[in-house]
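Incident log, structure service

09:12 report received: a user says their structure output differs between two submissions of the same chain.
09:20 pulled the input from the user's history:
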Amino acid sequence: MFVPFQKAVAQQNITGRVLDKTDNNPVQEANVILIPSGKGTYTDSTGYFMIKNVYPGKYILSISMVGYKKEKREIRVSGNGKINLKILMERENKNIGEVSVIGNRVEQRRIMKNITVEPLSLEASESVIARDKMEKQGAVTLIDGMKYVPGGLTETRGRKVKQFFSVRGQTYPYPSYSIDGIMQKEFYETAPFLNVGTIEKITIDRSASALLKSLSPLSGVIDVKTRRYTRKETGLWLKYGSLNSFDAGIQHGNKIRDLEYSGGASFSGTNGPPGRNGRERIVNLNTHLGWKVNEKINSSIEMFYLGGSRQFVQPVEPADQKFRDQKEEYKPINTFLIASKVDYKTSSIFSGELQINFAYRNPVYHIEMITTGETNSYAEKDHELTINHLNSWKLSEANILRFGILYNHWVSPHGKRYYYGNRADVHTWSAVMTDQQRFGKWVMDAGFRISREYYKDWAAFSIEGSGKKFKNVEPITDEWQSPVWQATGGATWSGNALLSFHANLSTGIVIPRKGALTADSTRPANEKRTNLDLSLEKNYGHSGSLTMTAFMVSRVEAIEYSGKTMDLDNGMIVELYTNENKWNYGLEIEGKFNLINNLLQGFVNMVLMQGQVKKKDQWVYDDEIPSIIANAGMTLQKAGFDLNLFFNYTGPFKNNRFVSKDYLHEYGKAPLGNFTVIDMTTGYTVGKRKKTRFFLEIKNMLNTPYQTVPGWPDYGRRYNLGINLKF
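09:34 re-ran on a clean worker, output below:
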C-alpha cells in the first residue's frame, strides 16, 4: 500500500476516459476510486472522469463496472503537469456474484438501460443472492435460496401454497414476484418450486417499497433474474438424500454473435415425513432466447413449465383436528409461463422496454375427508395476460425521468380454491412515474404509482350451498374498484466512493386480496401503510462491507388473519380477516467479509425489531413477530476443498393460525420460533476448465423440530450426497 505525501504543495487533478476494449465505446457510470485517499467519482456518458485536488504521491486507481473485469493502475502524482489516462476495460464472462461496491453506485443501476431497477435510495434495503451462494447453501428451489436474507422468515407448511416468505414481520400482503423485471400477478403457486438451476440471482426488496416491479403497493417484490450466457457452458447436477429426496437437472447455454440461448430441465421430489402425506414429484422445464437486433434494439423470450404432483403434508398438534383429518394434493400440477420483452434505445436520451407476459395454470385439486371417506376434486384453471410499457428519458445529465403503463387481465373460468364454481374475470390498469435528480454528492428520487381494478365478473362470494355467511354477500359484476396508490421519495448521499447514506419514505394504500372476508361477512377495510428506511453503507474495499438500516412501518387498519375460519360444504376452509392498527420498528445490521485473499468469505446479519398492536385503545406488544432474527455464513476454500457453514437463530413469537379452539382456550396462542438451525455443505472440486464437485449436505444439524406455523414442524436432520459438473 502506498501512502501519499501530503504537505502544503500543489495539488493536481486526475482525468481520463474509460472505454470498452472490444468496441472502443465509452463505459458510462463506471466507478473510479483512488486508493488509499478514498476519493472517487464515476464516468459520464462519454466515459470521462475527473478526481480533483490530489496531493503528490503514489496511488492505485481502481475502475470497476458491472459486466467488466476490474482495472487497476498504479499512478504517481508529482504536483506538476497533467495526468490524463485512457483505460480500456475488458468484458467479464463469468458470474459476478454479489455486487458490494458502495458509494457512487449509480453505475450498477444504469436506469437508462435497466428501466425496472428501483431507486438508489432503496439500495441498502435490497438483498442480492447470487447463484454460487445458493449452490453452496444446498438450495433446490427459489424459496430455499432466500433462507438467510436479513429479517427473512419462511413460513413452512403443507397447505395450498407450500411456503410463504416475508421480511420485517410483514406477513400481509406477502411480497410479489417478478422474472427479469416482468411482474407476475399470480406467481405464488410457482415460487416454492422454481428450480435454482435456472436462476442467476435473486434481488429482494426488504423495505416493501418497490415501485417499478410490483403491482402490490408496499408489499415488496422478489425479482428473479434467470441465467444468461456469454460463452458455451453446460451444467449437470444430481443429489439424493434423506426422505427419498432428490434433485437432478441439466442446464445449457451459449452466445453466438448476437444470439444468446439457454435451456434446461430438472426433476426434484421427496417422500416427506413418514405417514404424513408429503410426497412430491416436480418437473421444471425452461428455455430462453435473446437476440441483439442491432445497437438500439434487444429482444428476449423465455418459457417455463412446472408440472408433477404434490401432496400437502398433514399437520400435527396443536393444529385443529379438522386440518389433521384431511388428505389433500395437487395431481397433476400444470403451470406454463411465457415472458417476452423488447428493449430499445431511440437516442442517447430516450429508451424504453415493452413487456408481454402470459401465464396458464391448471392444477387439479383433490381432497379426502379421512373420517368420512368423502372425496372431491376439481381443476383450478386460470390464466393471465400482462402488457407493460416503460420508458426512460434523460432530461439532463443530472436528471432521468421514468414513466410507464401496465395492463393485466386475469381470468379463472371456474374459480379457484375456496371459490371453485364461480367465474372470476378481473382487469387491472396501472400507471407509474419516477424521477431521479443529482445534486453533487446527493441523488434525489421520487415516484408515484396508481392502479385500479375492474371486476367484470367476481362471484366468488356467491357459493351455492357452501358457507351460510357467504349467502349474505353480493357477488360483484361490472364494477370498478377504488384506486390504489403508492408514493415514494428518497435521497442518497455519497461522501466518497466508500461511504453512502440512503433515506426513503413510502406511503400508500394496501387493499385486501380478492375474496377476503371478515367474520361479519364484510370486506376488510383498506390499509394505510407508511414505510421509512434510513441506511448507512460503509465499504472496506476488497475486505468487505457493513450496512446498517433503521426502519419503521406504520399500518393503520392493518389487514390481518383473525385466527378464525369458516367451514364450507365442499370441504374447504376459508380464513377470515380483521383490521387492526399496528406499527413496528427495528434495526438491520449486515456485514460481509473477505479475508486471506479469498480463502475465507462470509456474512453476518441481524434484525432487531419491535411490534405494537392496538387492543381496546391500548398499544400492546405484538407477540406475533420475532424480536430478533440472526444469520451467519462462512465459506472456506482451499485447493479445491470448500466448507460452508450457515447459522440461523429466530426469536420466539406466537400465532393462532390453524390452532384448535380447545388449545387456544387452555394455552392461548401456539409458541413458535426460538430455534437455532445450523446447515453445512462441504465439497471437493477437481478440474480447472471442466469442473466436477462432489459434495455432502447436512440440513438442520442440531435436529431441531422447530415450527414457523403451528402444527407443521421441520422434518429434522437430513443428509444429501451429490455431484455437480460444469463444462
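09:41 both user submissions now match this output. Likely a transient worker issue. Closing.
09:42 reviewer note: The chain is about 5% helix and 55% strand. The longest strand covers residues 544-567.
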